[in-house]
Specification:
- By secondary structure, this protein is an alpha+beta fold.
- The chain has a 7-stranded antiparallel sheet, with no helix packed on it.
- β4 and β5 form a beta hairpin.
- The longest helix has about 40 residues.
- The chain is elongated and about 90 Å long.
- The two termini are about 30 Å apart.
- The relative contact order is 0.14.
Length: about 180
């Protein structure tokens, strides 16, 4: 095998290890967070994903879609925002801006929401949506996958260590053989 192929193989192995490690870390943080707070979501660089659980924003956001939410200071009429109301994350469209408060409305509702929301309640603005990905996200966030990923990571680590030990022994044998020839 040429050196370039070995290097590419090593790089691919390291990338795979990094992906599995990131999945394990994500799962651990998510599972622990959900144990302490049912509304827990992981935010990374001000961006989080939320599974749509209600039909208030249909047809724009359907139940089981994933909404990608980004922290935003600029909120205007027509934006879809996520906010907490009674410890529940709601997603609604900004219907009207009143001085410092916002009037919201679900696209699927006939009337505006009864209570106005303040800027402090807003978690962020919906910047994108992913259709029908709830099953994939639930699998990704499951305890079973976390255990599976951890086992795979440990197996990869042990196999890699075993290979490195064998390489080291072969190298030592080769060096010893060459020294004996001299």
């Amino acid at each position: 095998m040429t050196n370039s192929k070995r290097i590419i193989r090593r790089i691919l192995k390291n990338i795979l290890k990094a992906i599995i490690l990131l999945l394990v870390i994500y799962n651990i943080v998510y599972v622990i967070g959900k144990e302490y707070n049912e509304e827990f979501n992981i935010k990374l660089f001000g961006i989080q994903s939320v599974i749509i659980t209600e039909r208030a924003m249909e047809p724009e956001l359907k139940k089981n879609d994933i909404a990608i939410i980004k922290n935003s200071k600029e909120i205007k009429e027509g934006d879809i925002v996520a906010f907490y109301k009674d410890n529940t994350l709601k997603i609604r469209r900004i219907y009207r801006v009143n001085n410092i408060d916002y009037i919201t409305k679900g696209d699927n509702y006939l009337y505006v929401d009864a209570d106005e929301i303040s800027k402090e309640q807003i978690e962020g603005k919906v910047i994108n949506k992913i259709r029908y990905m709830r099953i994939f996200l639930k699998i990704l966030q499951s305890k079973g996958l976390m255990i599976f990923n951890t086992i795979i990571l440990v197996i990869i680590f042990l196999l890699n260590r075993r290979v490195n030990i064998k390489r080291s022994k072969r190298k030592n044998k080769k060096v010893n053989y060459q020294n004996n020839l001299k």
